[in-house]
Amino acid sequence: MPDNDRERDLDRFLTFIDAIVAIAITLLVLPLVELTADLGEFDTVGDLLDEHQTQIWAFLLSFVVIARLWFVQHRSVRHVLRYHGRIAQLLMLWVLTIVFLPFPTALVAAEGSSAVTKLLYIGSMVVSTAVLTLLEALLVRHPELTDGHDDADPVDGVTNVLLLLAALGISIAVPATSYLPLLLLLAAGRVADGWRRLRGRGPRRTRVGE
């Protein structure tokens, strides 16, 4: 979709949102940069990395999480042409969850097994996904805001929210599973398609870029 097809206000707003996400995902690496100050306390760089592998793992996990959420957001708004106050509100709420994520990421590195840490970390993902689901539902009700080629469908979002809640419950109830229950998200597509079949609908059409 050519950029000049979009209203100027919307285009500027989406650029603003993308800039905030870029800053948030960059902030994730700052704690790792600070680790270099401790290099003199270790014999080798390998020893430093081994000692702080939890922080490195937390960084990689959150990088993937934010990247995935951005791609979902991008696909949700790629066909939107007109600025709408409710869309702006939902996207600002969504970007708040992204800006917040580096905080629970730091907690994962320090107290990853804590139930409160898991609630904050996975809970922020739940809220972020739920907001994007509301955005998709809004676009279903207002197709005039799009270029007419959008296939917005809240089923995917609802499925992801339910799987995230299940992952949160398992992670807290069975601490030994750590954050592995998040792998349930890998089954989201099949679960959503199964849900559609039960409702008498076919699988969702694959969007360009998915």
From TrEMBL:
The keyword Thylakoid does not apply. It is found in: Membrane. InterPro entries: TMEM175-like (IPR010617). Its main location: membrane. It comes from the Bacteria. It is a multi-pass membrane protein. Keywords: Ion channel, Ion transport, Membrane, Potassium, Potassium channel, Potassium transport, Transmembrane, Transmembrane helix, Transport. The chain crosses the membrane at residues 12-33, 53-71, 91-109, 121-140, 161-188. It catalyses: K(+)(in) = K(+)(out). Belongs to the TMEM175 family. This is TMEM175 family protein.
